[in-house]
Amino acid sequence: MAVPSHGTTQAQDEGEVLLIDKPLNWTSFDVVHRIRQSFGIEKAGHAGTLDPRATGLLILCTGRQTKRIDQFANLDKEYTGTFELGIRTASFDMETVVTERADYTGVSHEQLQSVILGFTGRQLQTPPMYSAAKHRGKPLYKYARKGKTLERRPKEIDVTEFSVVSFVPPVVEFRVVCSKGTYIRSLVSDIGDKLGCGAVLTSLRRTRIGEYKIENALTMEELDKVKGERASLRSLSDGHRIPA
Question: d(Cα 57, Cα 19) in Å, to the nearest integer?
Fold first, then answer.
């Protein structure tokens, strides 16, 4: 079926739920905008924001399937990533400059694992200033970039798994499974504070949302190929879509 340049079709209204592999330095909205623009879709949204510096699984809903966004957003998430000991930044990742350096050489593998274990379970977490959490309709990061710090209300999160995959000082490779609304950057910063040397998130990839895995996600290049072939989203294999 050819992709219409204007208007909608019955299939578009019905909608799709797609598994997308968000690229580095794209916002979640960038992905939604590309889908809308490429396939002539008016209604689309994603189930759970990923920071621009994070990559990985994004569930995108179109048409009537946007009613299912909350269903997917409430599922648990799995991430893999790296953080570096001995440094601190205002954003808790590498978006902003390093503001402090400290000696990390006294941190052992056993100590690191013990501290990380202490950040599992239900807990309260305050959203970082460099985040998409809203204040009066505006993302907190817009205030942060102007040097403003606002009072934020802590929210309950649940970290069900948090493990060290490898530790080659100062770099820690980790895996975490957590509830929606968990800021991994904040967890990393808190771990650094507990260790006394600071820590900053250096890479993050979302590998799973509920039962849906990154292995089945479409890259933006694959979506561009579908567009180039004048095919519709319905031409995608079932492995890349979630049934209605």
Answer: 7
- Report the residue count for the chain: 244
Q: Is the pLDDT of residue 5 over 80?
A: no
Checking if the pLDDT of 210 tops 50, the result is yes
Q: What is the pLDDT of residues 13-72, one digit of tens each?
A: 788 999 999 999 999 999 999 999 988 898 999 999 998 899 999 999 999 999 999 999
Distance CA 6, CA 86 (A): 54
Q: Are residues 202 and 220 in the same domain?
A: no
Residue 224 CA to its chain's centroid (Å): 22
Structural domain harbouring 121? 77-209
Do the domain assignments include residue 63?
Answer: yes
Tell whether 226 is covered by a domain.
yes
**Global pTM?**
0.89
- Two structure tokens written together for 211: 């039962």
Give the three-class secondary structure for 109. helix
Do 90 and 146 share a structural domain? Answer: yes
Q: Give the pLDDT confidence score for residue 163 in this predicted structure.
A: 97
For position 105, which CATH number holds?
A: 3.30.2350.10
Q: Phi first, then psi: what are they for 149, rounded to 5°?
A: -120, 125
Same domain for 32 and 54, yes or no, is yes
The residues that are catalytic are 51
